[in-house]
Amino acid sequence: DFSDSLHCRSCPSQRARKATDPIRRSSSPVAAMRMLIALAAFTYGGSCMRLRTANLTVETLSAEPYSQAHLFEGASADEAASLTAQLNEIDGRLPGGGLKGYLQRARSLLKDAKEGENPFAGLTPVIPEGQRLFGDSGPGTEVYAEFERIGMEQLSKCAFCLVAGGLGERLGYPGIKIDIVAEVTTGVTFFELYAKFILAFQAYARKTTGNGSLMLPLAIMTSGDTHSETVGMLEANDFFGLHRSQVTLMKQELVPALSDTNARIASKDGKVALKPHGHGDVHALLHQYGLPKKWAEEGKEWLLLFQDTNPLPFRSLCAILGVSAKKDFVMNSVVVPRLPEEKIGGICTLKGADQEHPKTINVEYNQLEPLLKETPTGGDVADETGFSPFPGNINVLVFKLSGMARCLADTSGIVPEFVNPKWADDAKTKFKSPTRLECMMQDFPRLCAAGDKVGFSQLDRNMSFTCVKNNLTDAAKKNPPDCALSAEADIYASNARLLELAGQDVEIEPARDVEFLGIKAKIGARIILQPSFGISLEEMKKRVKGKVRISSRSVLVLDGDVRIDGLELDGALEVKGSGVLENKVVRNGGSALEAIPADELAAVPPSLQIRGYRAVEGNIETIELTAEG
């Protein structure tokens, strides 16, 4: 059903179209396809991606500059028509000149790959400009507080974009990653948590601006694998409190696979072979949907681009926005301290021989060390902090929307691509398997003009980075495990640190070692600070007073305009509503984590299967505060 790739089937406009849809009435699949590619894509946010009307024929595709005659050799008339229809549809969707542009770029990049062209040849890495938000300028310091205050003023001008093209199959989870439970204490999923943060920022922005209808827009990049499940998740949960009009879904399409250095398109069983193009497509989609320009015209100034299973940067967003605003960064990479030779990309400023027009950009770790060997340091070595001066990239990015819109307009949204063929012979004439062009979101600075400022905000990992990317077998071999258990432990640790910093006299017992299904982590008090409790550390400071003591076995959930003035907790407590909780002492049985017996594991929900543990219902005291009380 081709139309489902363009329209959310639950949308009223889609339901109304079904009876009279010319595609559904067309008796010719080729005619239907040609009509389809002229249609615009529906999104909840009301923005449309306009598709080019294509009319490529077998003759056109066989001749230069396409040169795809091999696809039609020995094909029947119906097979040729089907291949032509597929290529027309692809042509209509590919940015940057459609299919012709894609093939021309591919031939150039494949030529460079064959000749061993080094994209960084002649460039010298130097330490980039940025702001450290850890150590003596991290949370709890006046430097950090000032950046938060600046950023809090920018929240009303913020938009969001989630890269959500990933399935959980590799984790042993049979669904989309954003629907995985982030922590078992409240059972919130990753997407639900993101929605809570956006709604909390929105509530703060409405209060400070006096605009009760202000909305902070969210774009979600899906893929063919995740689109329908994402739509279903949103519909089933009434968009988690977000208004439908503030959400835009952007479906990422696949690109043709290439069988040789002449960029001949691969096919199998009469179908064009397709592969993912990479997460850099988020820029092309944002441009195709006209969102950066639209949002900028509506008064938005900033865009946070974030990942599917990493909620921690939201805790530091105000400080990060403050850095972007104060330093006027067109792109601000959120980064972490990086150990020398650690296997994550490093942010560098690359200068040419003329020292003009330097670029601050991510360089992958396998390319960074060879570059640094040519510098006076002789390699990737630590500075006085014990870390590499080239911080680690985590693909959380903040853009200035006006600059982003301008850069994307100049390139039709195309981020510089690369190709990584696996050669089958020493002469580099054949591939082991078809390859394709790829692009990465962090390569955006390569689009920037000479005057555009690009930098970073560097935070401790417990304030900025976690992820769920490994299955249980792989996680047991890695440090950090980067699995459901480690991500949940990181959430609790981040919240505990914030609570300690928010008050003048807060003590939380240290976390203890836990192990489930062979995965080890440190989990102590399971503290949940809902986004409604505080959108920044500065706001939380106003809500935590008095002496606070929390044991390592405790559970504490703070939800709403809650203020704590003295608390002794050894058990489980949930406080919600609006008001002050004074000098409260709670001692109860609490709610521990328990291992799920092996014979029960297959019957529990998938989010628990990839953990091997659950929260015991236990004894939890719930207090709902009222302003009057």
Shape: globular
Integer-rounded radius of gyration: 26 Å
Oligomeric nature of the chains? single chain
| Contiguous runs where pLDDT drops below 50 for at least 5 residues | 1-43
Strand count, sense and barrel status of the largest sheet are: 8 strands, mixed
Q: How many extended strands?
A: 27
Summing up helix and strand content along with how strands pair, one would put the structural category as alpha/beta
Straight-line distance between termini: 57 Å
Share of residues in helices: 25-40%
Strand order, biggest sheet? 2-17-11-14-10-3-4-5
What fraction strand?
15-25%
* Number of helical stretches of at least 4 residues: 18
Mean pLDDT: 89
Verbal overview:
Helices cover 28% and strands 22% of the residues. It contains 18 helices and 27 strands. The longest helix has 20 residues, at 190-209. It has 629 residues and is α/β, with parallel strands linked by helices.
